């Protein structure tokens, strides 16, 4: 009977340890996701606080600037974009793409 009690206690301990290890791993993953989400929120908040895009049309594709997309600073101006991906294209050659906008940033004139 003692052996059965010891085996049962050991079984419970090992089961609890395994369950705890799994929950700890899941918690770590959740915390990482929360950190990532918080980081994205901080980026968005900083973008909103830093400056509103001066342009109304995207310097890469010519579409209307969307508030949800990232902005890029170039020559003391915040450039907005029509969709995700345009910001990275702009960053590769900002001089080329900045020439696609009229002086007031309201028209796409595509000079390249």
Would you mind describing this structure in some detail?
By secondary structure, the chain is mainly alpha-helical. The chain folds into 2 domains: 1-50; 51-112, no CATH class. Helices cover 54% and strands 5% of the residues. It contains 3 helices and 2 strands. It has a two-stranded antiparallel ribbon. A hairpin with a 2-residue loop joins strand 1 (72-74) and strand 2. The longest helix has 49 residues, at 2-50. It is rod-shaped. The relative contact order is 0.11.
Quaternary state of this entry equals: single chain
Q: What is the count of DSSP helices, taking H or I runs of 4+ residues?
A: 3
CA-based shape: rod-shaped
The overall pLDDT average reads 75
**What portion of residues is helical?**
40-55%
Structural class: mainly alpha
Residue windows where pLDDT falls under 50 for at least 5 positions: 24-50
Estimated share of beta-strand residues: 5-15%
Strand order of the largest sheet: 1-2
* CA-based gyration radius: 26 Å
Question: N-to-C terminal Cα separation, in Å?
Answer: 87 Å
Helix-strand pattern: HEEHH
- The count of β-strands is 2
Largest sheet properties:
2 strands, antiparallel
Give the tally of structural domains. 2
Main attributes?
112 residues; mainly alpha; 2 domains; two-stranded antiparallel ribbon; 3 helices; 54% helix; 5% strand; rod-shaped
Ordered list of secondary-structure elements with their pairings:
Layout lengths: L1 H49 L21 E3 L2 E3 L6 H7 L1 H5 L14
Antiparallel strand pairs: 1-2
Brief summary of the model shown:
The chain contains 3 helices and 2 strands, in the order H-E-E-H-H. With 112 residues, it is mainly α. The radius of gyration is 26 Å and the shape is rod-shaped.
């Amino acid at each position: 009977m003692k052996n059965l009690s010891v085996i049962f206690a050991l079984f419970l301990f090992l089961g609890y340890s395994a369950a705890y290890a799994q929950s700890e791993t899941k918690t770590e993953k959740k915390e990482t996701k929360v950190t990532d989400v918080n980081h994205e929120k901080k980026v968005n908040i900083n973008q909103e606080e830093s400056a509103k895009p001066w342009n109304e049309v995207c310097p890469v594709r010519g579409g209307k600037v969307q508030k949800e997309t990232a902005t890029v600073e170039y020559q003391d101006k915040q450039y907005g974009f029509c969709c995700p991906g345009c910001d990275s294209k702009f960053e590769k050659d900002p001089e080329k793409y900045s020439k696609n906008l009229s002086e007031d940033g309201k028209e796409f004139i595509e000079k390249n």
